[in-house]
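Hi C.,

You asked whether I'd gotten around to modeling the 361-residue construct. I have! Everything is below, sequence then structure, no commentary in between.
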Amino acid sequence: MLSLGIETSCDETAMALVDEGRILQEVIFSQVDKHSIFGGVVPEMASREHLRKLQPLWHSLLKKSERRAGDVELIAVARGPGLLGCLLVGLGFAKGLAMGLKVPLVGVNHLHAHLMAPALEQEIEFPAVGLLVSGGHTSLYKIDSSIEFELLGRTLDDAAGEAFDKTARALNLPYPGGVYIDRFASFAEPDPDMFPRPYLDNASLDFSFSGLKTALVNHIRKHPGLVQENPLEITPDSTPDPELARVCASFNLAVAETLQAKLQRAVSATGVQNVILAGGVAANSMIRQKTIKLCSSMGLRLILPGLNLCTDNASMIACCGEILARHGLYHDLELEAVPRGRKIPWDYCGLKNSGIEEFRN
């Protein structure tokens, strides 16, 4: 089944063609340079950029893949969570294509797609515990099959990715900050006592990173020299001041060890033998290293996506759409976007009820 994936949940405009779990071609436009001026994503600007780029990306995808529009058999689109305006642009484009090409439409939970992204590279065994670590979400799931996800714990405030970005902002590092913190951390040994491991003095599987962010801000107040004077002169290849590197390494370690403590609890509570690490922050070297070490010590199989599949991408949307379609799950043209903060409903319907026959005739 040739599936077209469309991803516009935040600041990446992406399209991909996936056939039976194999990536044929992907095109992506990153808005990082545009938003870096403001130190974060500007929702209205992101929506306009999606609207401006979707059409040319669609034509570019067809040209690079040497496929015709009529070859597409399924449209899969990220329906949430994400920025509402951005999601609406993607959904509008997806619905128009579905009607024009007379093919089924399926809305994909962006978070579930991240957790299923490794299926594009390797077989996923179930049940599994999934640790999703991204810019807007930090969650633990028990995954019983490719379409069965049980939420075990989530962040109560800042996600890990937000904590990295806000820390970088406090240090006056360029956006996106997580890349710089991880890179600069490699220049120093972390101090394990510099920052706390937040929200571990309980039995919960939820996360809370706001206290860690506050500890970092208080540390900067005591050491104002850590704040960089000119972020425009800093690149990922820059060599940081030794003390800045030590702070980055220590913050990196605090986040990684907090995630691993909760992951270990989830594995012990569920008794599963498979672990999936996914999301943009899963590209962080310390988090990957600590997760590999934990799974090795517990005799668990760790399923890691390649670095290119950690960040938002359309291949994972197309892959997840294929999985849903194989289970007979589709949407009609009433499919709604679901912004961050709202629960995504399980509102799939069978092909006969999707409305596809109406515009096929």
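If it helps when you're writing up: The longest strand covers residues 22-30.

Thanks,
B.
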